[in-house]
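Saturday, quiet lab. Running sequence design on the structure tokens for the scaffold JK sent over.
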């Protein structure tokens, strides 16, 4: 690593992986409950487990994004972070707020609004924490020696995510208004500004791993950002079909939902083209594999599967069913989880000076986690399609349908075991790297780290 202050990213990455492991625990609780074995209901009711599972997803991904920013911004700005002490304070306060929120869920202290269940008093602490984070990376970029498209795009994505958190804090007595603005947070995060964060990190990794000129890669980034804004913002309309919003959202949501896959397809083509064009044979091939995997699976999960059930004619039947879970799991994994994993695998050898990116462990972690997630997506698809047919076409009662599709969750849990095995291998590989060292590169050629580690 070039700058000592980049080591603060380690705290966020370690916390991110720990929270992911906790999310998996609650995922298994939900999976067994869907199979009819809700044995923990008296201690952890289904709604509590579900809220914890989904909110842990948001928290560990945000933690991964923050860690990535603390690494990328000093590197792109060519200067140390303005304050390591305050970055550590920001990490600690973020963890404390997260722990209190998750504990609150188990004591029925929440708002009850899907994905935004965090209690209102904690919202204000989240805002303060994020402002501190943005202040640190913003000041670092402002005082830096250079401004790059990659760094600016990452900062714009992070600032936009912070601003779009605010509509979710507005109180409405009217359910339609509340749902309308809740999607400003949920949709415009995951299908809008988070794509800017993903695009910036994808650009950064491709610059470092492929050897393609920065100008070439960042020109693609402009195109992706443009398509993301065009399709993602108006694509919010596919959440407005049946909540009492005006009918014109049927047309707007349908058209721009069909365009949303273009942004992810652009990312996939962009990543593959840059990989083939690059003449640099970077030794950290597993980081490149996670990077390319992110680009491809984000198109499949977020792009293709998203469009497949958000067109009005289809969503009329699939709305509120497990088909959404099919899309959501592969979309979050492909678009955001994999880019965090790619950053971790790229960063850790430089932080620790250890060559642990080769060998069977990182390879099997990549294979098992991705095969497991794809299998889980298939299980959700079969269960979701069966649910749609039995509920919406045959007219069976909701609980009767849930009992009928329990068998599909056996396949889901088995796939989750495979996925979890891959994640645990990744975590163990992370632990083996050890803690960051104090060495700082004076040369811009980071491959010296890899050469020294290999020797």
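Result came back. Writing it out in full:
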């Amino acid at each position: 690593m070039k700058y000592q202050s980049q080591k603060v990213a380690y705290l966020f990455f370690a916390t991110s992986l720990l929270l992911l492991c906790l999310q998996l625990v609650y995922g298994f609780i939900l999976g067994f409950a869907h199979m009819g074995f809700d044995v923990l209901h008296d201690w952890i009711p289904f709604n509590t487990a579900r809220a914890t599972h989904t909110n842990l997803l948001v928290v560990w991904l945000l933690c991964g994004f923050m860690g990535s920013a603390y690494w990328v911004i000093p590197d792109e700005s060519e200067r140390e972070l303005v304050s390591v002490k305050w970055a550590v304070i920001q990490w600690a306060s973020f963890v404390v707020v997260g722990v209190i929120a998750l504990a609150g869920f188990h004591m029925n202290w929440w708002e009850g609004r899907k994905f935004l269940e965090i209690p209102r008093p904690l919202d204000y602490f989240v805002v303060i924490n994020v402002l501190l984070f943005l202040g640190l990376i913003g000041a670092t970029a402002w005082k830096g020696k250079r401004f790059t498209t990659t760094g600016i795009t990452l900062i714009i994505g992070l600032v936009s995510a912070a601003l779009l958190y605010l509509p979710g804090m507005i109180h409405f007595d009217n359910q339609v208004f509340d749902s309308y603005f809740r999607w400003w947070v949920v949709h415009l995060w995951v299908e809008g500004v988070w794509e800017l964060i993903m695009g910036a990190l994808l650009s950064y990794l491709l610059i470092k791993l492929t050897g393609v000129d920065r100008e070439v890669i960042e020109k693609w980034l402009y195109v992706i950002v443009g398509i993301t804004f065009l399709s993602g913002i108006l694509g919010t309309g596919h959440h407005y079909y049946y909540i009492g919003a005006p009918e014109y959202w049927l047309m707007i949501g349908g058209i721009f939902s069909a365009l949303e896959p273009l942004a992810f397809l652009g990312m996939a083509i962009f990543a593959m083209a840059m990989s083939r064009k690059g003449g640099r044979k970077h030794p950290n091939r597993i980081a490149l594999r996670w990077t390319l995997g992110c680009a491809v699976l984000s198109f499949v999960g977020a792009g293709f599967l998203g469009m497949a059930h958000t067109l009005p004619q289809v969503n009329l039947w699939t709305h509120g069913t497990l088909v959404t879970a099919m899309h959501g799991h592969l979309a979050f994994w492909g678009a955001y989880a994999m880019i965090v994993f790619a950053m971790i695998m790229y960063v850790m050898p430089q932080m620790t000076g250890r060559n642990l990116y080769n060998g069977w462990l990182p390879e099997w972690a990549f294979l098992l986690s991705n095969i497991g997630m794809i299998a889980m997506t298939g299980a959700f698809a079969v269960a979701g399609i069966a649910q749609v047919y039995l509920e919406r076409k045959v007219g069976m009662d909701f609980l009767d349908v849930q009992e009928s599709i329990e068998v599909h969750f056996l396949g889901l849990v088995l796939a989750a075991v495979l996925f979890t095995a891959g994640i645990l291998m990744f975590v163990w590989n992370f632990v083996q790297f050890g803690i960051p060292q104090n060495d700082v590169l004076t040369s811009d050629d980071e491959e010296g780290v890899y050469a020294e580690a290999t020797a």
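Notes for JK: The two ends are 18 Å apart (CA to CA). Residues 175-210 form the longest helix (36 residues). Ask whether to fix the surface positions before the next round.
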